[in-house]
Specification:
Blueprint: H1 2-11, H2 23-33, H3 39-49, H4 60-67, H5 88-91, H6 102-115, H7 118-134, H8 145-148, E1 152-155, E2 171-174, H9 175-185, H10 191-199, H11 206-211, H12 222-241, E3 248-249, H13 251-281
Parallel strand pairs: 1-3
Antiparallel strand pairs: 1-2
Helix pairs in contact: 2-7, 2-10, 2-13, 3-13, 6-7, 6-12, 7-13, 12-13
Bound molecules: zinc ion.
Zinc ion (ZN) binds near residues 19, 61, 62 and 75.
Length: about 290
């Protein structure tokens, strides 16, 4: 069984367009959030998802995009690499065919989660779980090279998978995809193990404690989404410039960026819980 699992771990995830944290990343974010929901948010999620977990619907928005191209741009924001602040006119241009950007989308989703009913409210929850994840994937906030989709890299690392006898395979992907999926897959055997890694690691840090929804009661508005995007963009600058000149992502690269990947996945989970707790405790604003 172990050799089958190994083969899968070292060969899967090589094809297909990169679009977001892969299913593992989104499940990790959702699973960090789930136990941190307030009683009203737990109730709201139970009602809308009919008892299913947040993780089970966390990648729905990527499937939905395949048939609804007008939601394409809702998953990212194109901030130029060399700036530090978001500019709506520059970075979030509406496009009839492909939507606007993740910051505008989160603003709508937040309102719909509070104000919509029926299927529209269910969809708002599914988008919320997914997009709060995406806005924390560093390359989802970078304009250059389509967020790294146009940079070919070779993931050639042993990673943290405990298998000294395994052969290390060359894995040709693009830089964006490496961040969506491959680096996570080289760190743990399955996404549940990544949640454990965070609960025993980054989620115990002082920064995590301060971001915990139990401690952070600042109301979430459109400015919050801008702050999240700018914060993620800072991480993006670091992981972009740490990329080796030969575009081989090796064990040294993983070691250098792993604290950032842990922090981005962990903080996304905490902020998702805060987003949902906030939505469940506030009435629909008067229009
Ligand atoms: Zn996405």
């Amino acid at each position: 069984m172990r050799s089958i699992a190994l083969a899968a771990a070292f060969t899967c995830g090589l094809v297909g367009p990169a679009a977001a944290w892969g299913p593992e990343g989104h499940s990790i974010v959702a699973e960090v959030a789930q136990p941190r929901l307030s009683a009203p948010a737990t109730q709201l999620v139970r009602k809308l998802l009919k008892g299913r977990s947040l993780a089970s619907i966390a990648s729905w928005a990527d499937d939905y995009r395949a048939t609804h191209p007008e939601t394409e741009q809702w998953h990212f924001v194109d901030i130029p690499l060399n700036v530090t602040t978001y500019d709506a006119a520059r970075d979030c241009r509406p496009n009839k065919q492909s939507g606007d950007c993740i910051i505008a989308a989160l603003d709508r989703v937040q309102k719909d989660l509070r104000c919509a009913t029926g299927e529209a409210q269910v969809q708002a929850l599914k988008f919320a779980v997914h997009l709060v994840g995406d806005i924390h994937q560093p390359l989802h906030t970078v304009k250059e090279k389509k967020g790294g989709n146009e940079i070919a890299v070779d993931v050639f690392m042993r990673g943290l998978l405990d298998c000294p006898t395994c052969a290390v395979a060359h894995t040709p992907v693009n830089f964006h995809m490496a961040w969506d999926e491959t680096l996570i897959q080289r760190t743990v055997w399955d996404w549940g193990a990544y949640v454990d890694r965070l609960e025993n690691g980054w989620l115990k840090t002082a920064e995590a404690k301060a971001e915990d929804p139990a401690a952070n009661h600042a109301p979430i508005d459109e400015k919050t989404f801008i702050a999240w995007a700018e914060d993620t963009h800072k991480a993006a600058q670091t992981v972009w410039y740490l990329r080796p000149a030969d575009d081989v992502l090796d064990d040294r690269y993983l070691r250098d960026v792993l604290p950032i990947m842990d922090r981005q996945l962990g903080i996304a989970g905490l902020r998702l819980a805060r987003f949902l707790n906030d939505a469940a405790s506030q009435a629909c604003p008067a229009r």
